[in-house]
Amino acid sequence: MEPSPHPADPDLLARRALRLAAGAGRVIVGIVGSPGSGKTTLARAVVEAADRQAGEQVAAYLPMDGFHLADATLEALGRQDRKGAIDTFDGWGFVALLERVLAERDHPVYAPAFDRAVGEPIAGSLAVLPGTRLIVVEGNYLLAPSDPWSRIPRLLAESWFIATPEEERLRRLVDRHTRHGRTPEAALAWARDVDGANARLIEPTAASATLIVDGGLPVGAA
Question: Which of 49, 128, 162, 173 gets the highest tally of CB atoms within 10 A of its CB?
Fold first, then answer.
């Protein structure tokens, strides 16, 4: 792991990622962090910056959240009240997708995304096109030591962990949950109890990341 923290500057990080992809055909960079750390915002910004720097579409965004189990499945498993925990994802499917996008370069590879408005994954929402050289994947559990998640690091060119103060993560999570229909009280309870339990599993995995990114400021802020 490099000295930390690195600023959450999409242009700097995009240049770093494009260097990794130079001559390699296709690489995956993983952005990891606890709920509310800013993974999605940074990942999308790095993809946009990479395309801008390359002067063409060379990067693709892939979220782990597309592999949330459907609400009906969670209900049948008795896990609806802990949605977002490591065992509420199709981890094997996610690993298989990462293996596919590295191996299958002569045709589009379609992937699911997570629609926060409906709270469900949507199949085939994203496409990794044949010309893609850089894939930025983001998710909570990319560095988790348990199987199948432990198979992910070998597929990544680098892993970047977003370190964000707990108070800031909590503020973002409460805002997110209220925007998607929870009362302020319910939003705070979910952020503390459910998201908080997940964060206790995720935060120690920073030790195995390639790079620590400062998540305490808005993406791109100095």
Answer: 162
CA 68-180-184 angle, to 5 degrees, is: 120
203-215, pLDDT tens digit by residue?
A: 999 999 999 999 8
Query: Using alpha carbons only, what angle is made at residue 108 by residues 107 and 112, rounded to the nearest 5 degrees?
Result: 150
Question: Whose structure tokens read 């990544």?
Answer: 156
As a whole number of angstroms, the distance between CA 222 and CA 203 comes to 24
Q: Beta-strand (E) ranges in 72-169?
A: 109-115, 120-128, 134-139, 158-163
**Model confidence pLDDT, tens digit, residues 158-188:** 999 999 998 898 899 888 889 878 888 888 8
3-state secondary structure of 146: coil
The DSSP line for 167-185 is HHHHHHHHHHHHHTT--HH
**In Å, how far are 65, 177, 210 from 30, measured between CA atoms?**
13, 25, 10
- Give pTM, 2 decimals: 0.91
Assigned superfamily of 10-214: P-loop containing nucleotide triphosphate hydrolases (3.40.50.300)
Task: Return the biggest CA–CA distance within the chain.
Answer: 51
